[in-house]
Amino acid sequence: MTLACRAAIRIAGIVAMFLALGPIAAADAQNSPLDVAKSLADSALKDGWSYDFLAGLTTEIGPRLAGTDAEARAAEWAQARLKAAGFDEVRIETTPMTAWLRGAETGHVVSPAPQSLVLTALGGSVATPPEGIEAEIALFRTYAELLAASPGSLAGKIAVVTQRQVRSADGGGYGAANPIRRAGPTEAARRGAVAYMHRSLGTDSHRLAHTGALNYVDGAPRIPAAALANPDADQLERLAARGATTVRITLTPRTVEDARFSTVVAEIKGRERPDEIVLIGAHLDSWDLGTGAIDDGAGCAIVSGAARLIGALPQRPRRTVRVVLFGAEEMDYSGPAYAKAHAGEAAKIVIAGESDFGARKVYTMLVPPGTAGSLFARGLVAVLTPLGIFLNRDPARMGGDDIRGLQAAGVPVFSLRQDGLDYFDIHHTADDTFDKVERAELNQAVAAWAGFAYLAAETGVDFRALAAAQR
Amino acid sequence: MTLACRAAIRIAGIVAMFLALGPIAAADAQNSPLDVAKSLADSALKDGWSYDFLAGLTTEIGPRLAGTDAEARAAEWAQARLKAAGFDEVRIETTPMTAWLRGAETGHVVSPAPQSLVLTALGGSVATPPEGIEAEIALFRTYAELLAASPGSLAGKIAVVTQRQVRSADGGGYGAANPIRRAGPTEAARRGAVAYMHRSLGTDSHRLAHTGALNYVDGAPRIPAAALANPDADQLERLAARGATTVRITLTPRTVEDARFSTVVAEIKGRERPDEIVLIGAHLDSWDLGTGAIDDGAGCAIVSGAARLIGALPQRPRRTVRVVLFGAEEMDYSGPAYAKAHAGEAAKIVIAGESDFGARKVYTMLVPPGTAGSLFARGLVAVLTPLGIFLNRDPARMGGDDIRGLQAAGVPVFSLRQDGLDYFDIHHTADDTFDKVERAELNQAVAAWAGFAYLAAETGVDFRALAAAQR
User: Does residue B38 carry a pLDDT above 90?
Assistant: First the structure.
């Protein structure tokens, strides 16, 4: 691209935004997009719809593991709710998947001190024999120590990694510890282990284990794998320090090859450029242990509630706002599947983001490269600053697990980051229930998403052009 | 008693104390009892024995339900530990009991929204049939509403009471809510209910139910009874508000008629009046769900550690300090049994107290009637004030569940109350594990108990006389 071409694109983008940020000659004749966005945020703070949506989803459906009847019911439930809420179009797209279903899961110290252990199978784990696996444990206090163990050194043992996830507001400790769960089972198996356990990826100290998906590697042995509740990992550390410790674990999950998951798509159609799409997503599936309130019923409530408020304005914004409630995030299916199914649409999606980090307040926003210095960002800051949100210096690197495929296809992404200091206390546990959600915090997030989505849809900002101009 | 007699007793008591609070002509020639008590408290704050005791008990034994092998192992374990710690005599007394053993326990919402419920059988509950009991629920938001229901009105229903326990530092909310668990099953049965569930007596919001004993009433029907985790009680409230809700619960506990429980008794023998006993107790049995760290491994560690420090002094105190680790507090057996077995000794027990309220700091002390204004109390205040403990205006009304029988037999009681603001977050749940204990807080409690027990044993204070003088 020539410099002149870049400059032309940049100017075009800025002019378009500038015009758009002025008053709209329509039903909102007196109101600029900024005024409308601010009033949307104000409405969100007082609204009860998202909180009620979340209460309904977690109560009337409850747990909704991808590929199960409950997940399908959740999709129908959401479709009905969104239709009633005035969306222009609400549809369900279904996709084949192999479902993984939890079975029994028990653990016991056999010797030297018989007692039960709280654990949960990792998503995707193979089963133990029905009578379980009994073996001495080989305990590693860090994952690096497991990786340093030589091949064959864990033969016949149950490998246990007790490294702790670090607590942090941005959730960075989870990413850093993630290989312990994702790759640990394979690494232990390669060294001869007959089963694998790790300290839950979680920052609490309750007898509730944190599940989550593992990733076996083709060609490597597959061994049963489970996460221990934090106090139980402590207990095994103390027992191992005292001497040889034998444990029995029983896990009986199974898979269903011909399952399907559902994706709920709901749109507020754009009045001028309906083919240009601002995509805001969340995932409707949840782990089976809790009722998926913070992960990710909250996200569904936030993006649905934000779009609903936009739809309740006197007129539609210029572009389409599309809500996508993904159906199999936890099992790693829905992001790639959506990108594949909608590959032809990628160019029409002007920006995409996913709300999947709980129900607390948004504290920072990350926008695509080249956007932070734009007039659009100035408008965004004007709307989101009163909500206690700052514009991050860093450009958005990811828009969410389900957005990754679109991003790879060239879709610009944004991120509205929520306070996650206690998110991993309950993430992926039975404790992920509605009582953990504060209505005022949830509504602040709705306000942020409504403000962002409306401005992106109304102003006609060209995020791709801004990024190109910066290059 | 005549006034002159009362006055004589009072003077005798005061003179005895006054003499005792002066320097002791012995190994501690330079040290008054107050100096020794202060140095004991200082030693306790730096000590590691009690914390290690608690780590060992909760790790090497773990859960120890009264009447089980684990409880018997715990008694042997404690006996060995206390012998090694230098107690003059350590013995185990065994008592017959009917043990209650937990079986399977599951709960599910059958309709309108199938999902699992977290619950736990109440101690002493009868079993459901193996296939469970399925019935519509009758939900009461307060216990009073259940009591107001007419006979027969709950026929065929599962009664559910969702009243909340109030959080308070002194644990008063537990006592107030206790009839919901103790008497609720009988009250529901009298109104026709086929099973009973109540919101756990607990102040947390985790998917961990709080067990605890119920009390059936002779002649009334006995129905299975369970406690729901707090979030599950919330869930049933929301479901019931939406319409008819059917639940299935399965509980398969059983009883063992010819079980026994153990009481561990360890003494630091008095150098002058070995037959006069300062009794400090705690209970070694625990519920089976957790490892009994705060209830009541901590109490065992506190009173054992306090007496051990007294035993480590250059000379024994005048009176005997007796540690009693009761073996069946949770099932209501040990207090009455101990009082019965030791009825002949009651007159020799100069004072008794039990540490059974967790592992946090002691913040107030309650002494028998007539003691607060005494010279003894002045000494106590001098030792305990630096630990952040104040002398309560109220006299001690109770010394602990296991002390009640002795109290009824005329033994004066005292209480060192610990901060209980979060005690009922984990009380009687699987979460009662060692990681919840802070060493510094535990040691402060050891310091308080050591100071109290030493002064009571060394000064020769006559609590009965002080109480009599006040009457």
Answer: yes
Residue at A441: amino acid letter: E
Task: Sort out which chain B residues have CB atoms less than 8 A from A234's CB and list them.
Answer: 433-435
Cα–Cα distance measured from residue A357 to residue B418, given in angstroms and rounded to the nearest whole number: 38
Q: What is the mean pLDDT of residues A367-377?
A: 96
Asked if the Cβ–Cβ distance from A206 to B205 is below 8 Å, we say no
Residue type, A342: H
Catalytic residue chosen out of the listed positions A187, A267, A329, A330 = A329
Q: How far is B120 from chain A (nearest CA, A)?
A: 14
- Closest residue to B234, CB basis, from A206, A429, A435: A435
CATH architecture of A3-99+258-470: 3-Layer(aba) Sandwich (3.40)
Whether the ω angle into residue A112 lies within 30 degrees of 0, i.e. cis, is yes
Q: Return d(Cα A414, Cα A279) in angstroms, integer.
A: 10
Task: Please list every residue in chain B whose beta carbon sits closer than 8 Å to the beta carbon of residue A434.
Answer: 231, 234-235, 238
Chain-centre distance of CA B13, in angstroms?
Answer: 31
At A23, the pLDDT band (50, 70, 90 cuts) reads very low
Nearest-Cα distance to chain B for A236, in Å, is 9
A320 neighbors A269 (Cβ within 8 angstroms): yes
- For B122, the token pair is 């109440």
- Which phi and psi (to 5°) does residue A425 adopt? -70, -35
Residues constituting chain A: 471
Say which residues have a Cβ less than 8 Å from residue B369's Cβ, sequence separation at least 6: B395, B466, B467, B470
The rounded distance, in Å, linking the Cα atoms of B301 and B308 is 10
Strand A158-161 with A195-199, pairing: parallel
Q: Which residues of A touch B (CB under 8 A)?
A: 55, 59-63, 70, 109, 112-116, 118, 205-208, 230-231, 234-235, 238-239, 242, 290-291, 429-431, 433-436
Cα distance between residue B59 and residue B62, in whole Å: 5
Would you list which residues of chain B are within 8 Å, Cβ to Cβ, of chain A? 55, 59-63, 70, 109, 112-116, 118, 205-208, 230-231, 234-235, 238-239, 242, 290-291, 429-431, 433-436
DSSP conformation class of B321:
E
Distance from CA of B218 to the nearest CA of A (A): 35
User: CATH: 3.90.950.20, 3.10.20.310, 3.50.50.60, 3.50.30.30. Which one for A103-252?
Assistant: 3.50.30.30
Q: What is the pLDDT of residues B252-293, one digit of tens each?
A: 999 999 999 999 999 999 999 999 999 999 999 999 999 999
To the query of whether residue A145 is one of the catalytic residues in this protein, the response is: no
Helix (H) / strand (E) element for A383: namely: helix A375-384
A chain contacts of residue B61, beta-carbon cutoff 8 Å:
113
C-alpha distances out from residue A266 to A93, A308, A325, A342, Å: 11, 10, 8, 15
Is a pLDDT exceeding 90 seen at residue A7? no
Is A126 in contact with A254 (CB distance < 8 Å)? no
Where are the domains positioned within chain B? 3-99+258-470, 103-252
If one counts every other C-beta atom within 10 angstroms of the C-beta of residue B76, the result is 13
Contacts of B66 (CB under 8 A, 6+ apart): B97, B99, B259, B261, B285, B327, B328, B329, B330, B331, B333, B334
Q: pLDDT, tens digit, for every residue of A148-162?
A: 999 999 999 999 999
Query: Chain B interface, mutation test: which of A77, A200, A206, A234, most B Cβ atoms within 10 Å?
Result: A206
